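To whoever picks this up:

The parser on our side crashed when reading a file containing two proteins. I've narrowed it down to the boundary between the first structure block and the second sequence. Both blocks are reproduced below exactly, byte for byte. First block:
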Amino acid sequence: MESIAFSLSSPQTFFVALIFTFLSFFLALLAVRSLTFKPKSGGSATDLSTSNKNEKLRACCACNCNDVVSGSDLEPLRAPHLNGGTGPDVTEKTATAITERQTGASMMEQLVPEITTHALSYLDYPSLCRLSMTNSLMRKAANDDNAWKALYHKDFTLEQDGITPVNGWKAYYAATRAIVNVNTEFFNFIRERSLAEMSRLWLNADYVKCVHASGELFSGYNAVMQSWRLAFDWEQGVNFQIRDVRARVLTDMAWVTMKTYFEIDTKPFIVTNIFEFHNGRWYLVHHHSSDMNGEVEQPIVQGQ
């Protein structure tokens, strides 16, 4: 009986083991099949790399206006506007703006220099200086030597048409204006009868000289100051006009000639003032005033 029971249990154990083996084989087969078909649904490693590259290219193209990736099947990507949507003509508008700016600059630069100089000749000294501060193109035009030469002849004299200033006509114009302003202060001190200001205007040197309209000559700083003291004490205030002011400026010396009219019906006095440049300012070193002898001075004609 015990041997029969043992023989009956052995087939059952074998059958159970067979079933488990079959199930294990079936599950293993399913696992292999799932691994085999997964790349088809998700793509292979090469396809994934290509997809990532395409995504990066799309991101790069989004940063550039209207770029197309060559060698790929991507469509042209257009840069979005800040307020939404895409801008199909961003590049065209940018190119148009650049062209307009370039055209405006080229039109100014292509003007004939003579026309530019003629146009600037209608400006006065302050206006020409303000124009030079607007932009680089106007600064270049306003610093043109011919423009300052024309302005010099308009404001001062044609006598120096043939000279060539060492530092250019702009610097020469500024130096001439400075000496003309100092010469104007000299006559203002006479009107105000200010001996203190007159003493500061003259150079304190023994070679300075002054010839008054009376014909008296005074030499040396002290003698010249004494002559002006006497003139301011004795003479009453007089009205006079200064005309035909002409200046010549060198490095450290300048002289100014003019006509002085005390009364409109009388003959003018010819006045010459000579200045020297010391320690950053102009000093008067010679003054000469004399009655005009009746000769008429010929006008200066440009080019002669």
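<<boundary where parser fails>>
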Amino acid sequence: MAVPKQERLILFDFDDEEDDDINFTENALSEGTNVLAIVEENPRNHIFKAIKVKAMNNLPEGSEPSKLGRRLCIKCVTSITEDNIYISKDTFFPLCMFSGGFSPFNGDLLLVEYSMNPGTSNMNMHSASPLNSQNMEEVCVTCIDGRNGVVEATMFFTLDSLHTLPGYTSGLYDIVNTTVVDSIQSHYTRRVVSMTPVDSLY
């Protein structure tokens, strides 16, 4: 009987010196490139495989560490309260750190700028933003299931965290413009954060 891969995701920063045993296949990367990555562990042989890699020279504009002593890492949203976003049991930052059309949701991948308190393992969170954000035009809603749905059979959305026009509720086969972010959901790796029906633009 096959042993399933470990579902637990390990968030890893490749600019450390601990990446010799981690495999990834990013043809565009050259040896010596510093990257941020999310890796998963195979429990049978304990080999780590990167499932999401982002080159440090390919970061969103303005996301480079702004001050000496600050670093970047990828973190996954684990829970959300009325005021805070948690990326682990004890590490969180205020929801007001985000603005505009993005509201974090469980499973979203964030690019976090942080520093360490000297002599402790406590992180100071300075900024956070979606790891990747992409605008997609004239795509189709292919599934509706209560308050959840799917676009183009590959991108998850939920009405509990979706920015759209007042009074608009997405319908099956609607053609929409969307903004999507990287997010770890049950069967999907991207989440729709905003949606506008195309016919409303004409």
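After patching the parser it read the second block fine. The chain has no helices and 16 strands. The radius of gyration is 18 Å.
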